[in-house]
Write a structure and sequence with these properties.
It comes from Cupriavidus alkaliphilus. The chain has helices at 18-36, 39-77, 82-97, 108-132, 136-140, 142-177, 181-187, 198-204. The chain is an all-alpha fold and 212 residues long. The protein has a single domain (55-204), classed as LemA-like domain (de novo design (two linked rop proteins)), CATH 1.20.1440. α3 (82-97) runs antiparallel to α4. The longest helix has 39 residues, at 39-77. The N and C termini lie far apart (112 Å). The relative contact order is 0.14.
Length: 212
């Protein structure tokens, strides 16, 4: 006669050690504190600033790409305007020689050099376009008119991109300077970001004139 097997006992549920529970509590509290102190907001606004900055760079690069053809076209009709043409070429070379990246946003001096170079290029372009008004044959040239149209569109996009960048930086900097989120900025190294100067902001509404 077989001996009846004893009923199996249920497996006890694993118990968490007090240390494990404490660890989870600490993580939960830290997540809550980070959220309350604006850490997630900093990440979102920092990415928004970088995206806006990237668009500014793209539009300035597009303008720089148009300039060689513009200079060559003008030179074909106004070769004796040598000083004006050289000024544009030199200003373009200076502007494109400045290496820019997202890290430029954390370096006010590098940002200042960049905007100064772009401002000088804008001024040189304005003078070149003003000179072109004196040459009816140049103004009638189909290639020149096409380049003018492309330049006008690019200048408008630069204006919009700069405005969006200024707005994004303003929102970010308010967060970086306000209490208690300024403590989060200090701990996690979210410095105040540079924006275009007052003089530069005025120039936004007055890009180089492109006349037809």
């Amino acid at each position: 006669m077989r001996a009846s097997s004893s009923p199996s006992l249920p497996t006890p549920l694993p118990t968490r050690s007090p240390l494990s529970v404490l660890r989870w509590l600490v993580l939960a509290v830290m997540a809550s504190l980070l959220s309350a102190c604006g850490y997630n907001d900093f990440q979102a606004k920092d990415e928004a600033v970088k995206a806006a900055w990237g668009e500014v760079i793209n539009q300035y690069q597009r303008r720089a790409d148009l300039i060689p053809n513009l200079v060559n076209t003008v030179k074909g009709y106004a070769s004796h305007e040598r000083e004006t043409l050289e000024a544009v070429t030199k200003a373009r070379a200076a502007a494109t020689s400045i290496q820019v990246s997202p890290e430029t946003l954390n370096d006010p001096e590098a940002f200042k050099r960049f905007q100064q170079a772009q401002g000088e290029l804008s001024g040189a372009l304005s003078r070149l376009l003003a000179v072109s008004e004196n040459y009816p044959q140049l103004k009638a040239d189909a290639s020149f008119r096409d380049l003018q149209s492309q330049l006008e569109g690019t200048e408008n996009r630069i204006t919009v991109a700069r405005q969006r960048y200024i707005a994004a930086v303003q929102q970010y900097n308010v967060l970086a300077r306000s209490f208690p989120t300024n403590l989060t900025a200090m701990i996690f190294k979210y410095p105040v970001k540079p924006s275009f100067t007052v003089e530069n902001e005025k120039a936004i509404s007055t890009p180089p004139a492109v006349k037809f």
